[in-house]
Amino acid sequence: MTIYEGKDYKEICEKAAELIASEIRMNPRAVLGLSTGSTPIGVYDRLVEWYEKGQLDFSKVTTINLDEYKGLGAEHEQGYRFFMNQYLFDRVNIDKSRTFVPDGTEMDSDKACCEYEEIIEEKGRIDLQLLGLGANGHIGFNEPGDVFIPDTHCVRLTESTVEANSRFFRSKEEVPKEAYSMGIKGIMQARHIILLASGKQKAQALYEAVYGDITPGVPASILKLHPHTAVFADEEALSVIKEKS
Ligand SMILES: O=P(O)(O)OC[C@H]1O[C@](O)(CO)[C@@H](O)[C@@H]1O
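^ thats the input. predicted complex w/ 6-O-phosphono-beta-D-fructofuranose below
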């Protein structure tokens, strides 16, 4: 795990976007693992800027997203397919048939998860996986638990995640209580991983992920076992690490 400190959110997004852009330039058929939430928005904005300047071509890129709320379809403004269209796919020349997000409208969880797992296997290893960090240490929607779950699964979201994500909904009651998430295996099989963390609310989770035991109680802690994980964190996200070292 290598940690890069950026002075602020803008700087860490710039660095992460540079890595993604070089991956696409070196490997136009790259398979990118993408994430949602507020953290990666600055990365997508930067990639779009380079695309608009003619410096990046997404036409052969494949993307596999980490997760989707169970019950939300592509038209739902808080759904992750909607998010991806809004912040990236509708703004660049990607072929949408090469973009994959779990099907939130499939209410049969086993079916939804098996189908997504098949897609992940069929597309092969992810070349570069972009991750945000939940304030409780989650990656994708792999919530803290007793075991690491390898495959795509249906997750009962923790109270703290529902609370944290309620800022995107009109009320907490509207936040779906379940989601489909890529499992730890899909994430760990990626060739390279970027973990982005910004803000004080991520500082404790980042400290535990980097310095704590490897435990399913802090899902991001498993990233220590990956040979190529780069953490891009701003000063606030690094505040607990700095305090304790
Ligand atoms: O970036 P945020 O909005 O703080 O969310 C943290 C993480 O939780 C998720 O929303 C759950 O999927 C991730 O996409 C994100 O990286």
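The CA atoms of residues 113 and 152 lie 5 Å apart.
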